From TrEMBL, chain A:
The lineage of its organism: Eukaryota, Viridiplantae, Streptophyta, Embryophyta, Tracheophyta. The keyword Transferase applies. It catalyses: RX + glutathione = an S-substituted glutathione + a halide anion + H(+). GO terms for molecular function: glutathione transferase activity. SUPFAM superfamilies: GST C-terminal domain-like, Thioredoxin-like. One of its GO terms (biological process) is glutathione metabolic process. Pfam families: GST_C, GST_N. One of its GO terms (cellular component) is cytoplasm. Residues 89-221 form the GST C-terminal domain. This is glutathione transferase. InterPro entries: Glutathione-S-Trfase_C-like, Glutathione-S-Trfase_C_sf, Glutathione_S-Trfase, Glutathione_S-Trfase_N, GST_C, GST_C_Tau, Omega/Tau-like, Thioredoxin-like_sf. Keywords: Transferase.
TrEMBL record, chain B:
Residues 2-81 form the GST N-terminal domain. It comes from Linum trigynum. It is found in: Cytoplasm, Cytosol. It comes from the Eukaryota. Its EC number is 2.5.1.18. GO terms for biological process: glutathione metabolic process. SUPFAM superfamilies: GST C-terminal domain-like (SSF47616), Thioredoxin-like (SSF52833). It catalyses: RX + glutathione = an S-substituted glutathione + a halide anion + H(+). This is Glutathione S-transferase. InterPro entries: Glutathione-S-Trfase_C-like, Glutathione-S-Trfase_C_sf, Glutathione_S-Trfase, Glutathione_S-Trfase_N, GST_C_Tau, Omega/Tau-like, Thioredoxin-like_sf. Pfam families: GST_N.
Length: 222, 229
């Protein structure tokens, strides 16, 4: 086995977080795809993440780490000499952790209310809540180029992968995130100028056609 | 040294995570009890996103979310009683279990908030969570001590709520979930936690906790009954 292995799924925003962090640190790794849409999980996944049986899993020198933000913090700790994702001061670090945790608590579930439902009450609630969350994040970004300041940091890594699912939310929910949160979309474009981000994020239209629509069919969310 | 304030409510286990961390580190602080039915301007200004306790205010800077607060405390006062392992992998394992606690322990509070079928569901979910913890988390401790080795660390603090608080919840909800025969490793750890230095002198009393949760449960069930009429 290679020294660093990432078990991942191409369309997962959580997996993309790990990809961006590894790229920022210049870490060479072996990417292994888990074909989640087949419904089958590999023995390697079940063995390395027996508690949740989910990707991403980072395996470093045979030792597995699960949960995307735990993985990003591990990458930060293990390759601490380059491209720090967290500021040095404890207060700055606490704020970065608070906002990354906010992203974790809100964005995926609010987005799911939109894509996994037909037009109606639940979907409308999801749209309203998602826009509220994104506006709060815009407020936190303020006039800075990135959440991490002059360069991308922990919160940027936590949030930007969800951009790949915005097209699906907008198409299914019939609304525009750009119209509501233009500063956030400008921030996304700045992030995409970095190779670590542009190489780690997948095409939003591919996410819509090959993932979201497939999931909707698979689970009967139509 | 800049002053430290803690906004909390008694006997919130989330408040207690922070109190115990401050006590373990020997940090002086001013505790300000909050009234959540009438939130103070200080609370609303210090935690505008969630408007919840606990909030730590250090030198005027507010930090929210109990486990984020604990990491801040550990990094700001690194010299005494470290709350995380020093090595990256040990820290990753600790953070994994902290996240698990943050996501999964809420089913336990549902046991206390509900009755009948809903309570039955909460009990089943909590048993499932306990089975995972017994095998994968507490399984690694054996008889040795704590997640922090010989000393309590922040993973122990994250789960510490499941000791005395859960005991009180079980008593006033009339359900027994933590069977010592089924969860011996957890129960051994919980006893050690309750007896650990500093912890044992700073936990709320068992009787006070039971009385508090009994009254709260009566209020909650009455409100639920009134709402469904």
């Amino acid at each position: 086995m290679a020294e660093v292995v990432l078990l991942d799924f191409w369309g997962s925003p959580f997996g993309m977080r790990a990809r961006i962090a590894l790229a920022e640190k210049g870490v060479k790794y072996e990417y292994k795809e888990e074909h989640l849409l087949t419904g089958k999980k590999t023995p390697l996944l079940l063995e390395t993440n027996p508690v949740h049986k989910k990707i991403p899993v980072l395996i470093h020198n045979g030792k597995p780490i699960s949960e995307s933000l735990v993985i990003v913090q591990y990458i930060e700790d293990a390759w601490s000499d380059t491209a720090p994702l967290l500021p040095a001061d404890p207060y700055g670090r606490s704020q970065a952790r608070f906002w990354a945790d906010f992203v974790d608590k809100k964005i995926y579930d609010q987005g799911k209310k939109i894509w996994a439902n037909k037009a109606g009450e639940v979907q409308e609630a999801g749209k309203k809540e998602l826009i509220e969350s994104l506006k709060l994040l815009e407020g936190e970004l303020g006039e800075k180029p990135f959440f991490g300041g002059e360069t991308i940091g922990y919160v940027d890594v936590a949030l930007v992968p969800f951009y790949t699912w915005f097209y699906s939310f907008e198409t299914i929910g019939n609304f525009s995130i750009q119209a509501e949160c233009p500063k956030l979309i400008e921030w996304v474009k700045r992030c995409l100028e970095r190779e670590s981000v542009s190489k780690s994020l997948v095409d939003p239209e591919k996410v819509y056609v090959d993932l979201i629509l497939v999931l909707k069919k698979m689970y009967g969310y139509e | 040294m800049a002053d430290v304030k803690l906004l909390g409510t008694w006997p919130s286990p989330f408040s207690y995570r922070v109190i115990l961390a401050l006590k373990l580190k020997g940090i002086d602080y001013e505790y300000i009890e909050q009234d959540l039915s009438n939130k103070s301007p200080l609370l609303l200004q210090s935690n505008p996103v969630y408007k919840k306790i606990p909030v730590l205010i250090h030198g005027g800077n507010p930090i929210s979310e109990s486990m984020t607060i604990l990491q801040y405390i550990d990094e700001s006062w690194p010299e005494t009683h470290p709350l995380l392992p020093a090595d990256p992998y040990g820290r990753a394992v600790a953070r994994f279990w902290i996240k698990f606690a943050e996501e999964k322990l809420s089913s336990a509070s549902m046991i206390f908030r509900t009755s009948g079928e809903e309570q039955g569901k909460a009990v089943r979910e909590t048993v499932e969570v306990m089975e995972i913890l017994e095998e994968h988390a507490f399984g690694s401790l054996k008889e040795k001590g704590f997640f922090g080795g010989e000393k309590v660390n922040m993973v122990d603090l994250a789960y510490g709520v499941m000791g005395r608080w859960f005991d009180a919840i079980e008593e006033c909800s009339g359900v027994k979930v933590i069977d010592p025969l089924k969860f011996p490793l957890f129960c051994g750890w919980a006893e050690r936690f309750n007896e650990a230095p500093v912890i044992r002198d700073n936990l709320p009393g068992r009787k006070e906790l039971v009385d508090f949760y009994k009254r709260r449960r009566e209020m909650m069930l009455a409100a639920a009954a009134a709402a469904s009429n």
